[in-house]
Write a sequence for this structure.
């Protein structure tokens, strides 16, 4: 028991760790430590002091040793996403290149609005030993260093220059990470000398503290305005984003849509808000969406967007909605709620939907509008069924997705990221369980797949240990970052990894061809500097890191290998070659604004430029 005025003498590093140990969050009536542990690679910038502080609590605050700092950050992001932003992991790296490696991961967390605490080494505050190993010297500004680069990719940033500063900085960082509107990575630069300095901290600073995620009630005048728009709508549609899940508002979304008979389309981040079989689920929206969702969104007169930042892949660069459609933005963030002259409803999705339901009373959208939406969805389902089916045609991403989809458990988690797989998963995956799809397309970051799968599996093993985390990754992302296969084996966090090898960056090659250019520098076979192209033995490579491996020649063989992987006790990597040109999902695409060459000596480039520009006529004004 502590008393007013009691103090505890600790180093800065020890105080940070003790504070984290005593921060809890209430989830469903159960109190759980907010910080699930950390990912760390030690160096001279963090091992002497922070490492010393973490060792005594290693059983309660587990530290996972990563193989690469960037992949550690990806794993931390996936962990936070699994826990719907209610829990986070910290990442610690040494001063210099270790910390620099976390920049991409911080950007991913920032773009996806995910909590992540970065505890990174920094140069000596006293400057007495300068210039030290790995220090960047700015001759006219000695206060400027590598860690300042994180200011653009952090929601909260501080450099600790005195031990007492953490009394303010740590609670502020935590408040940022738990804020529904401002959520994102928090960065603390820890100079190597300051980490070990001691201070008499108030004992009350380390008292057990239980947090709850704030639910902001919407303004009732904004609710009334939104309800009036919806009541007068003849063709309303709901765009359900990832914020629906972060708010815990899936049940409210479902009951709202059912009560008022409004079709629902999903963003990439909101891909698993409704089961595929729900009659009001009209499909994924946008550039990598479905014909059904895009058709309905284009015909809608009122669009209620919930928990989405309305990224260009969702809006088709603002062409999927009719120019005269009215938008309502229900969002915890003011910035997102007011986009494109939306009527803003700033507040929590759960509370906002409850308030809108009450305001709309018994109002229901016209039955013929819903019937049209459901008819479009049936047509889309028929297309997807044919698209994912094995047959006498080249292997494709869609066929691999279909094989996994047919055999996985409803609570298995699907993880993918950059390249062609996000589009193919978004279009072809039929959701079996709410909140089970992690398509990282906020930053579309190569290398997230396997590392994110490891982080997701760590989180999944805390609550659903009997379920699987399934990673879909292309050969390009695999070659960029694969070392967490080894991490998953070392930590016994089983993954099922499908490596779909199309010989390079095939989706960008497709984009290159679609803009009138010849294939160049994307597929290995089309790289002028490659003199001896050969196929990588991905199975042998993964086996060298301790994984079980199989190679499949057909979707049927992949399905059989997947069943064996489900039964296996450890990480299994299944490799299948897919065609880089054939088998892409050809339907469901919206217009997407890309920069094309306005003049060119190549006629096909000029033609494609004119074709792309012709789509601009449907683009809503950028206001």
């Amino acid at each position: 028991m502590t008393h007013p005025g009691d103090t505890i003498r600790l180093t800065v590093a020890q105080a940070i760790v003790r504070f984290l140990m005593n921060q809890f969050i209430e989830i469903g009536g159960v109190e759980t430590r907010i910080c699930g542990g950390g990912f760390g690679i030690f160096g001279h910038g963090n091992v002497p002091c922070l490492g010393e502080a973490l060792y005594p609590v290693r059983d309660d605050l587990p530290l996972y040793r990563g193989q690469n700092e960037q992949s550690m950050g990806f794993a931390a992001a996936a962990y936070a996403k699994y826990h719907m932003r209610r829990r986070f992991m910290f990442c610690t790296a040494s001063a210099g290149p270790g910390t620099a490696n976390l920049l991409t991961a911080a950007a991913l967390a920032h773009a996806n609005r995910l909590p992540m605490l970065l505890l990174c080494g920094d140069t000596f505050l006293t400057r007495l030993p300068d210039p030290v190993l790995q220090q960047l010297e700015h001759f006219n500004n000695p206060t400027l260093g590598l860690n300042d680069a994180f200011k653009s990719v952090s929601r909260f940033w501080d450099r600790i220059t005195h031990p007492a500063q953490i009394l303010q900085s740590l609670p502020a960082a935590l408040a940022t990470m738990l804020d529904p509107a401002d959520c994102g990575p928090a960065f603390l630069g820890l100079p190597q000398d300051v980490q070990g300095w001691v201070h008499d901290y108030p004992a009350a600073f380390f008292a057990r503290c239980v947090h709850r995620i704030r639910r902001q009630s919407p303004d009732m005048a904004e609710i009334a305005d939104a309800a009036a728009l919806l009541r007068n709508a003849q063709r309303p549609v709901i765009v359900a984003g990832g914020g629906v899940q972060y708010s815990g508002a899936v049940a409210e979304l479902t009951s709202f849509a059912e009560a008022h008979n409004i079709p629902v389309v999903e963003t990439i981040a909101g891909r698993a808000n409704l089961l595929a079989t729900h009659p009001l689920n009209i499909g994924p929206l946008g550039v990598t969406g479905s014909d059904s969702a895009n058709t309905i969104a284009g015909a809608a007169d009122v669009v209620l967007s919930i928990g989405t930042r309305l990224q260009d892949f969702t809006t088709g660069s603002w062409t999927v909605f009719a120019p005269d459609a009215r938008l309502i933005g229900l969002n915890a963030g003011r910035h997102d709620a007011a986009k494109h002259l939306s009527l803003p409803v700033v507040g929590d999705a759960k509370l906002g939907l409850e308030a809108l339901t009450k305001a709309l009373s018994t109002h229901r959208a016209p039955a013929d509008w819903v019937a049209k939406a459901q008819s479009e969805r049936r047509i889309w389902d028929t297309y997807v069924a044919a698209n994912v089916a094995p047959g006498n045609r080249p292997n494709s991403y869609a066929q691999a997705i279909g094989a996994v989809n047919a055999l996985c458990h409803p609570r298995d988690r699907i993880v993918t990221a950059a390249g062609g797989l996000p589009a193919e998963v978004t279009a072809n995956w039929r959701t079996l369980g709410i909140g089970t799809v992690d398509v990282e397309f906020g930053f579309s970051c190569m290398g997230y797949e396997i590392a994110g799968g490891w982080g997701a599996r760590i989180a999944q093993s805390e609550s659903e240990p009997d379920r699987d985390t399934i990673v879909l990754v292309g050969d390009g992302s695999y070659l960029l970052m694969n070392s967490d296969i080894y991490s998953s084996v070392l930590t016994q966090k089983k993954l099922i990894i499908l490596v779909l090898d199309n010989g390079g960056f095939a989706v960008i090659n497709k984009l290159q061809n679609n803009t009138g250019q010849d294939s160049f520098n994307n597929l290995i076979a089309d790289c002028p500097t490659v003199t001896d192209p050969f196929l990588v033995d991905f199975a042998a490579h993964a086996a060298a890191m301790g994984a079980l491996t199989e190679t499949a020649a057909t979707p049927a063989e992949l399905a059989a290998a997947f069943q064996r992987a489900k039964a296996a006790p450890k990480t299994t990597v299944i490799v299948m070659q897919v065609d880089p040109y054939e088998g892409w999902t050809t339907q469901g695409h919206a217009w997407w604004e890309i920069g094309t060459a306005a003049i060119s000596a190549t006629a096909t480039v000029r033609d494609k430029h004119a074709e792309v520009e012709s789509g601009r006529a449907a683009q809503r004004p950028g206001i």
Q: What stands out?
A: Residues 7-211 form a domain with the Rossmann fold fold (CATH 3.40.50.970).
